[in-house]
Amino acid sequence: MKCPFCSKENTRVIDSRPADDNSSIRRRRLCDVCGKRFTTYEKVETIPLIVIKKDNNREQYDRSKIEAGVLRACHKRPVSANEINKLIDEVENEIFNLEEREIESKQIGEIVMDKLKDLEAVAYVRFASVYREFKDVNTFMEELTKLLNNEKK
């Protein structure tokens, strides 16, 4: 690592620990030439994930979009913020564990619905009604019937 003060490459790590956000490593370094200390942060570089939308447009993955959809589905339901964050973390882990560079928004929606089904039934139906774009009451009732049949098992 090059020293930011004297630009020499003779530096060494004197302390290393996780940073406050726990997603990077904080390293305290000492320049052997000028004797000054400085801090560097090391972070894992992730491969950007591209989401293929319904209209075949592509855009970079954005966690806040999943969060917004789940928050709308859980509005005025007995679901805590911690449960919502845990659900979103689980969805993200599942998505990134696929190790794909591109994923269809449809696949993300299915993962979210699967997790919501286990968390809160009304939130699941709300999310599904928007996500699946129910055209009429019959398709809505079919989804409710499926949900009720799964709960009986």
Automatic annotation (TrEMBL):
unnamed zinc-finger residues: 3-34
Cofactor binding notes: Binds 1 zinc ion.
Reported cofactor(s): Zn(2+)
The ATP-cone domain, residue ranges: 49-139
Single Gene Ontology MF annotation: DNA binding
Top-level taxon: Bacteria
Keyword Signal: no
Keywords: ATP-binding, DNA-binding, Metal-binding, Nucleotide-binding, Repressor, Transcription, Transcription regulation, Zinc, Zinc-finger
InterPro entries referenced in this protein's UniProt entry, alphabetically: ATP-cone_dom, NrdR-like_N, RNR_NrdR-like
BP terms from Gene Ontology: negative regulation of DNA-templated transcription
Role: Negatively regulates transcription of bacterial ribonucleotide reductase nrd genes and operons by binding to NrdR-boxes.
Family statement: Belongs to the NrdR family.
Protein's name according to its UniProt entry: Transcriptional repressor NrdR
